[in-house]
Amino acid sequence: MTTGINFAVAIVKETGSTNDDLEALVKSDVIRPDALSNFHGYTELAFSQTSGHGRFERVWDSGRGGLYQSTLLFMEKLPGVNFNMLTITTAVSVLSAIEKYAPDCRLFVKWPNDITAGGRKICGILMKAMPGLPGTPVIIGVGVNVFNQVDESKLRNSNILPPGSLSELTSESFGESDITALSGGILAELDRNLQRASAGEYGAIFAEYNSKLLYKDEIITLYDRVEDGRATAEGRFIGLDENGFLLIEDADTKAVRPYPSGEIRKLPSLSK
């Protein structure tokens, strides 16, 4: 069982990309292989980014008022936890932290890495593993729209789900102190849930993730990437398997097949 992660947090007013900053750190000679513990949990929080990005290098509009945070973990420091488990545990942790700021909103996980509310995307999570390097580093990037105004014209994937923010959902007035508090909440939940996963309680975390899935038991279309317009499967979304793979039931044959990656879409008018 892990004994807790010492999250050292660096706060910057602005940067290009917190994920890029941590990737540069990992690739530098600053972290010695015999001193990984000193950087396990190292986190950078920015109040704005000039080159924020998500999956497929999509632009993440990162103006003032959002949380932009990346955390460095080493898989060898997470006994009993693999990358798929870390991905699901991270999503549950981020959702739980955000719920405290939007207690009256129903939050969902849009597989594999978005947090949504009211049919809008309020958070994106980007997981990047760097195998072959000492300790097997993983960078966890989290972006949350807190009180920022998102320019949809900059987004290539707003046709999947439009963006939203916590301030819009709750009609609350948030400030930068709320961003730092949310950052701490995310890290606390991540620490707590990673300890649970390491102690053999991952099944409960996985069940919580499955219970929060957007579009579950509804008809979805799966794409490698939505912008390309090439559907790879269509059918009823019945959940995830133990590997975190998407399970889709064919409408005609009722056969269930797992899919390890992709993006799902449903008509916005029918979304939760």
Provide a descriptive summary of the structure in words.
The protein has 272 residues and is an alpha+beta fold. It has 2 domains: 9-211, BirA Bifunctional Protein, domain 2 (2-Layer Sandwich), CATH 3.30.930.10; 219-270, Roll (SH3 type barrels). The chain has helices at residues 18-27, 83-99, 166-170, 176-211; strands at 9-12, 43-46, 66-74, 107-110, 114-117, 120-129, 137-145, 219-223, 231-240, 246-249, 256-259, 263-265. β6 and β7 form a beta hairpin. It starts with 8 loop residues before the first strand and ends in a 7-residue tail after the last strand.
Task: Give a concise summary.
The protein is α+β, with helices and mostly antiparallel strands.
